[in-house]
């Protein structure tokens, strides 16, 4: 960062982390553009590709199944061990887990198969709008992020997220409004949040609607682009 004239953080928590670690002089560090993210989200495009019923039929998921989803790399930094432990909670025995992403080295995929019966593997999907719409809840039990775009993508499809209070992730969800936050590594808290949302469809729907409104109003790509353009011209 020493040769840069401007450093544009994509979330408030990331900005605070940069300052705490003294990674760049404060004078080079700009404010976060809008509410954050690197590029915003095209909510309309995601909604156009979000066909919950057809996607569930294609994946063999029942209409009444409660689906917990994960989109990303199956690595420890994304909190997969925490998700594996949470899904072993007896209260979640009937939950379907939809995984979208490539399997990585390290055996976490095999461990998930061995510990939870109802796992569906969609593999890597370039634009997983249908898969997101098939979920009831997205979970991102991550250790660290810049700003997780997948949360905005899920929000655009009307899906709330359960994520951690980690850097970046904490900015993507308004706790109790657009989803639920918990501390990284706390599998009990993750399980509790999933059970709460499964057992309260009205809360789940209200969080999904709030998440969609936030994605549409605060994270439109043009809003982010205009903010970056102002910085570049300053």
From TrEMBL:
InterPro entries: Glyco_trans_1. This is Glycosyltransferase. PANTHER family: GLYCOSYLTRANSFERASE, GLYCOSYLTRANSFERASE EPSF-RELATED. The keyword Transferase applies. It comes from the Bacteria. Keywords: Transferase. Residues 52-214 form the Glycosyl transferase family domain. Coiled coil: none annotated. One of its GO terms (molecular function) is glycosyltransferase activity.
């Amino acid at each position: 960062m020493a040769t840069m004239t401007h450093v544009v953080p994509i979330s408030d928590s990331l900005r605070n982390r940069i300052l705490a670690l003294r990674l760049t002089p404060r004078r080079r560090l700009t404010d976060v553009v809008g509410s954050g993210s690197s590029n915003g989200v095209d909510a309309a495009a995601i909604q156009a590709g979000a066909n919950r019923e057809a996607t569930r039929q294609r994946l063999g998921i029942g209409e009444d199944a409660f689906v917990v989803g994960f989109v990303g790399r199956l690595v420890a930094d994304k909190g997969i061990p925490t998700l594996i432990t949470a899904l072993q909670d007896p209260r979640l025995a009937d939950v379907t887990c939809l995984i979208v992403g490539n399997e990585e080295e390290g055996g976490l995929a095999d461990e998930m198969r061995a510990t939870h019966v109802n796992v569906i593997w969609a593999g890597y999907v370039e634009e997983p709008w249908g898969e997101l719409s098939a979920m009831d809840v997205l979970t991102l039990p991550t250790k660290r992020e810049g700003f997780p775009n997948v949360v905005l993508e899920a929000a655009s499809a009307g899906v709330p997220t359960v994520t951690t209070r980690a850097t970046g992730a904490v900015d993507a969800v308004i706790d109790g409004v657009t989803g639920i936050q918990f501390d990284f590594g706390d599998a009990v808290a993750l399980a509790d949040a999933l059970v709460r949302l499964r057992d309260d469809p009205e809360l789940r729907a209200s969080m999904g609607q709030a998440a969609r409104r936030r994605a549409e109003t605060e994270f439109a790509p043009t809003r982010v682009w205009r903010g970056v353009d102002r910085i570049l011209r300053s």
